[in-house]
Structure formats: C-alpha cells, structure tokens
Design brief:
The chain is built from 12 helices and 5 strands. It is of the alpha/beta class and 250 residues long. A 5-stranded parallel beta sheet has the order 2-1-3-4-5. Helix 2 crosses helix 4. It is elongated. 33% of the residues are buried.
Length: 250
C-alpha cells in the first residue's frame, strides 16, 4: 500500500484538523518534499500539533518519518511518468500567468506608482521567498533615486513600525496572503498602517487584504500551489514591469 492509499484509507479516523492536513496533501503531495511542518500547517489552515497527530495516526513517529515516506513515493511516481510531460505543463502554466499580467487592475497599479513616487518614505516587506521581490523593488527604487526601507524577516518588520507615518507608503509581498507570518507586525502597526498601504499577493482571498487599503492580485496562484517552492518569478516580473512604469513617469 502506498502512502497516498494509506492516507485515503484513514480518512474516516482523522479528526477535523487532521482532515485539513489530509485534504491538502492529497491535493498537493509534492509540498511534503520542501515544506516544514510549520509551513504545511499554515497552508493547510491548521496547527503544527495537528500535522504531528496526522503523521502519528498513519503510524509514523513524527513529521520527519512521514516526509521521508512521501518523498520516496513521489520519486517512484516521477519515474513512471514521461520525462517531459511535467516540465511542459509547468512551463505552460508560467506562460499563461505571465500573459495574464496585462489584465491587472491598472487603476490600482497607477495608485501604487503614485504612492512610490511620493517623497515620503516607502517601506517594503516580504518574508521568506516573498523577500525576493521586495528586495528587487528596493534596489530598483534606489537606482531610480527613490528612497525606501526593506524588511525581510519578523524582527525587521516589527522594527519598521516605529518609523512609519500616515503619509508613508507600505508595500507587502505575500504569495498566500495569510496573516500568520505577520501577526507581530500587525499587532504593532494595526492602528498605524499608512494610508498608502498595498498588498501584493496571488491569493484573491488573502486574509491580509482586510488590513490593507489596496490589494493587487497577481495571476498564477494555482500554479504556485502546485510548485514545490513558493513561486516568486511572477512577482519579480511584476516588479520589473512596475519599475519601468515608474521610470517613464519619474
């Protein structure tokens, strides 16, 4: 019996929180290869203890043992597939997402450009992989002579709240748009977010959207879920597009 068959067989015995883990892994089994237990819990909408109980319900000591079994299963499945089929599908999904960038809400983009050209300080924030487009925008703005500050982890994110003002601009990058990674930041700044606050995400149902005045939803969220790592190429292409538009107006 494969690990996937075992998960399906245990469905009726899982608790509600364990069923969330089960449903997520059955839909995106590849994520077991690269996700930590914390990230898996976040994406499944449950807790790390629920993920641990899920693994133990399947007869494993912990997440590490379960993950090894999943990796072995996934490698066996890849060996059975045609070598180019997965690659072609992956690239086609990227191409489709890039093409859809032209359909973004231009009003929101122009509002973002206007805010970034504001002489007041701009704050850029991204955690983990989402730090890459935030950093790219930071250096791009610097090349255009525009000041900004860049935070790439929880500690830096919390610190920048001390200098943010209402007339500042805040741009936060988050593929999933879940607020779990930003609880400390939101607690420190919930009453002090700048009026020019922008969330750049791929999730049209992003939890963080409730805290930001503007939300720009990039295409490719389903492809991101199918990827073993958080896809940032779409976000970075968007940043390059944005920087070129700023250059034309600066």
């Amino acid at each position: 019996m494969t690990i996937i068959e075992s998960i399906k067989q245990h469905q009726s015995t899982f608790s509600k929180s364990e069923q969330k883990v089960s449903a997520y892994l059955l839909k995106y089994p590849e994520h077991a290869e690269t996700f930590t237990i914390t990230k898996l819990a976040d994406r499944a909408g449950t807790s790390t203890s629920a993920v641990l109980r899920f693994c133990q319900s399947l007869g494993f000591q912990g997440f590490k043992d379960f993950r090894f079994e999943m990796i072995a299963y996934l490698r066996q499945q890849r060996q059975k597939q045609a070598p180019t089929s997965g690659n072609s599908q992956f690239l086609n999904q990227y191409l489709a997402a890039i093409t859809q960038l032209q359909d973004l809400d231009q009003t929101a983009i122009h509002q973002l450009i206007k805010a970034l050209l504001n002489p007041q300080m701009t704050y850029l924030l991204g955690i983990h992989y989402s730090s890459l487009p935030a950093k790219q925008l930071f250096w791009g703005l610097a090349d255009l002579g525009l000041l900004s500050e860049y935070a790439y982890d929880y500690i830096n994110a919390a610190h920048i709240t001390n200098t943010m003002r209402q007339d500042s601009t805040l741009v936060l990058f988050s593929i999933s748009g879940t607020k779990a990674n930003f609880n400390h930041f939101l607690a420190a700044s919930a009453t002090n977010l700048p009026k020019n606050s922008f969330l750049i995400t791929m999730n049209s149902k992003a939890e963080l959207a409730d805290y930001f005045k503007h939300t720009i939803v990039l295409p490719g969220y389903q492809s991101s879920n199918r990827s073993v790592v958080d896809m940032q190429a779409i976000s970075m292409i968007f940043v390059e597009y944005l920087l070129n538009l700023i250059h034309e107006q600066a």
